[in-house]
Each structure stands twice: as C-alpha cells, then as structure tokens.
Design a protein that fits this description.
This protein is an all-alpha fold and 135 residues long. The chain has one domain.
Amino acid sequence: MNTNKILVAGLIGGVFAFFFGWLVFGFLFPDLMKIPLEGFMKAEADMVMWAMIASNLLWGLLMAYIFVQWANISTWLAGAKAGATLGFLISAAYDFGFFAMTNMYTLNSMLIDIVVNTLFVGIIGAVIGWWLGRK
C-alpha cells in the first residue's frame, strides 16, 4: 500500500476542503446551511472546530485512498470526475434520506445542496488528482 502517498494526498485534500468549504459554505452560499429548525445549527462561535477539521481530513483521506488504491487516479480531470461522482452519490444518498425522514430540507433546498456538494467534492477531487499526478 502507498501509505505515505495516501496520507500526504489526504492531508492536502483535507486542508483544501476545510478552506474551500469555508469559502463555499461560509461566504458564497451561507444560506444553504441554514436549517429552518430552531436550535438545529450551532452558532458559529459554538462550532467544534477540531471536529470540523477531522471531518475534512477524513474526506481527504477517503478520496485519496480510493484514488490511489482502487482507481489509480493521477490527473486533475480524472480526480474531478471521480470526486463529482462521489460527491453526487454520497450527498444524494444522505439528502434524500434526510428529506424523507426530517423537516431539514425542502425539495428545492435538497436539490441545491446536492448540486453544490457535487461541485464542491469534484473540485476537491481535482486538487487531489492533480497532487497525485504531479512530477
């Protein structure tokens, strides 16, 4: 197994995901994360940052593991395609489940969340794919 390659690519992907997520969900689409349930979302000051960092690092490691061990991805384009596919399938699976069982989403907000996350994870995949293929 290419442990070092996976760890470095996962770290790069995770750090990128953290800052890119801050840009996308904090500045470009802040209302996307607003759930119309009182007390559901924590105030920004109450967020548990170590858990947010862990979440992003785990996303990076998941993608790096898949790219290196199973898919042999080493270009930004292949990474973008694989990332977008993963982003779509995972976000759609979760969002449709939440839509079915909770009041978290309207149909429109669910579809927007799926599109944004598909693009978001696709771009993270492009960064990881680029890193893995650099000379």
